[in-house]
TrEMBL record:
Keywords: ATP-binding, Helicase, Hydrolase, Nucleotide-binding. Residues 24-159 form the Helicase ATP-binding domain. The keyword Repeat does not apply. It comes from Marinobacterium maritimum. Signal peptide: none annotated. It comes from the Bacteria. InterPro entries: Helicase/UvrB_N, Helicase_ATP-bd, Helicase_C-like, Helicase_Restrict-Modif_Enz, P-loop_NTPase, Ribosomal_zn-bd. Residues 246-392 form the Helicase C-terminal domain. The keyword ATP-binding applies. Pfam families: Helicase_C (PF00271), ResIII (PF04851). This is DEAD/DEAH box helicase. PANTHER family: ATP-DEPENDENT HELICASE IRC3-RELATED, TYPE I RESTRICTION ENZYME ECOKI R PROTEIN.
Amino acid sequence: MNPPAPAAFTLRDYQQDAVTATVQHFRASDDPAVIVLPTGAGKSLVIAELARLARRRILVITHVRELVEQNHAKYAALGLEAGIFSAGLGRKEFSHQVTFASVQSIARNLEHFADAFSLLIIDECHRVSEEEDSQYQQVISHLREHNPGLKVLGLTATPYRLGYGWIYRSHYRGFVRSEEPRVFDKCIFELPLSHMIRNGYLTPPEVVDAAIAHYDFSSLTPSDTGHYPERELNSLLAKHPRVTRAICEQIEELAQQRQGVMVFAATVEHAHEIGSYLPAGHTAVITGETPGDERERLITRFKARELKYLVNVAVLTTGFDAPHVDLIAILRPTASVSLYQQIVGRGLRLSDGKDNCLVIDYAGNGFNLHHPEVGTPKPSADSEPVQIFCPGCGFANIFWGKTDGNGQVIEHFGRRCQGLLEMEGEKPQQCDYRFRFKECPHCGAENDIAARYCQTCNEAIIDPDDLLKRALQLKDARVIRCAGISLSASGECLTVTYHEEQGEELRERFHLDRPAQRALFNKLFGRRCGNGESPRQFKTVAEAIAAESLLPAPDFVIAKQAGKKGRQGGYWQVRERLFDYQGAYRKANEM
């Protein structure tokens, strides 16, 4: 094969870094890898450079024909020839060294790709499913049959999917994203959106609060995948037609000094309602129901500035490039930081006469554009990303949490440290420190709070809901929802009082001068000190009293009647304390 052709353009520093990281990774490993670049960072140029450097056959696939065409165009700009295999583009070429294709067309014509390919590049790789019968997996399996050493590289701006999690297992900066197997093993390069804006590669966003009434979607609960039920959305929106009209009036007023406006609607019905309020003849509505030819015609007119307003429902968050867009109006809820950043990214590309992009969120999503993706759904509206150091390995984790007025973390929702420990001569392992955990009753090992079986001894762990259900059915058992604890002392005997939300109490005594009881107290409370951030080993009652504010309260306490029954002699003996409870029963102070 001939040596690489000279580049026809100069890569930006981070684009060259991404290319270098890819070459270095695949020289040392065949493990599938991911590059994370924000919208507008020029993934097409990175792909083009990798294809230019290749000595053997390369296949570049994605899910929409617009991206197939865009990626091919960047490669062609180098003065090099490549094939296109896409039914939507009316071309089926498969004999070139480099082929740009749609995954749908390849999956239906695998017999044309029987030669050995050295590299498969997947653009928008967050769409790759683990299901064996998915089109992406069919393509990967077929190519590996002809070359077991096939290198697989994914590129995306959104490496996290709600309901699934991170699309890769570990990160080159030394932390773990997923404890479960993933299609991609490692993220080998990532660039934050803030770097792009700070260095003038993207237009600065001007994020403002809606100056008028906005939607309140807080009563709706998204699914595990982050989607809101369309019927419930339509029902809520139908109750507030005046809000939608007022929003559209404000958008039209703000758009007077703007070049192009993109509006993101919640549902198809909502999109058409919005379209009816915006100027006729200057507005287009695109949904999943819009025929392909009509969609292409409307997008062409919008890019040519014949249309000023483009209303859409979840169809223009990827693979769409209209640099003149300088007003983004968000009228839909989302539970994903990544999707929010994708939406805003539609308006951040550079364009002549464009100083900034106005971003207005009428849905109250409450995301900071520069916040990192935490990796779990936002637990509450007032949660924000917080940095938590691991007491075990020192890694700085990013979890959802809450802060006080001074910015100090008062609570976080992290479970396990994400740090990646590298031992000489061994495969890197995730740090096993857990901030929240459930103990195995058989061997005492710490497990994830949702675990059903112990990761150490494989024995079944008692389901907290089963434990509560059985206790509630017993006449001689008592269950309280614990709203807090308090401590008192008599010598080296420490009394822990569990306060029920309605004012009832249970008490438990620990003699800290006795090794067994001191070990139990430290196991229950000392290990969990400060949300698991400050584990302690208390030796005296005075030490425990001094650290009372750091001690956690269990969510439920179960006691059984002991001693002589009757008014004089009976008492309640604490048997179980359920920390970090997640289940069907309501915890204290919850609605």
